[in-house]
Amino acid sequence: MDRETVIRAQAGDQEAFTPLAGELTPTFLATAHRILRDIFLAEDATQRAMLNIWRGLPRLREPDRFEAWSYRLLVRACYSEGRRTMHWAPAIGSLAPDESGTPDPAGAVVDRDELERAFRRLSLDHRAVVVLRHYRHLSMDEIADALGIPLGTAASRLHYAMRELRAAVEADARPVAGRVVS
């Protein structure tokens, strides 16, 4: 983010805020979708975050920290949307593949489904840290800054989230007693 543009937007310059919002919105929507697992909730969270950014921008003390501050507002909006409605419709297959346009082999679809089910079991705190680390590729320092938490807390959340994901995938893979496998 251009520091001068942020400073102009802080002063109430709507023309300066427009490119900031244009740059943030697609990334925010994708990030919120990955956290909330529902496109409609993600759209609401993104809109709420953009509104809160515009309203709170004059109070931002350090323009150089705009990006981390804006991610903090997005994650808070995701938390708010997630708590407001605990009904999350399945969104399997609604995320576009990040790498190639080739169809997935059947095994990869099953793996993605297992991971999706495990990811949905995570708390919003854990989802947020996993998405910021593995989708947005933020460093642990950047994650801590974006979430407004100590570095150790961010690292701990990531550790426990990954442990929960592994445990959930392994639990789903175990045969259920009495189930007939054909």
Number of domains: 2
Largest sheet: none
**Mean pLDDT over all positions:** 84
Order of SSEs = HHHHHHHH
What is the CATH class designation of the largest domain? Mainly Alpha
The CATH architecture of the largest domain can be given as Orthogonal Bundle
Total helices: the number is: 8
Q: Which blocks of ≥5 consecutive residues have pLDDT under 50?
A: 87-100
What can you see in these coordinates?
By secondary structure, the chain is mainly α. It has two domains: 85 residues, RNA polymerase sigma factor, region 2, helix turn helix motif (Rna Polymerase Sigma Factor, Chain: A, Orthogonal Bundle); 69 residues, Arc Repressor Mutant, subunit A (Orthogonal Bundle). Helices cover 69% and strands 0% of the residues. The chain contains eight helices and no strands. The longest helix is centred in the N-terminal third of the chain and has 23 residues. The radius of gyration is 19 Å and the shape is elongated.
Write the layout of secondary structure elements.
Blueprint: H1 3-10, H2 14-36, H3 39-56, H4 66-84, H5 106-120, H6 124-134, H7 140-147, H8 151-173
Helix pairs in contact: 1-2, 2-3, 2-4, 2-6, 3-4, 4-7, 5-8, 6-8, 7-8
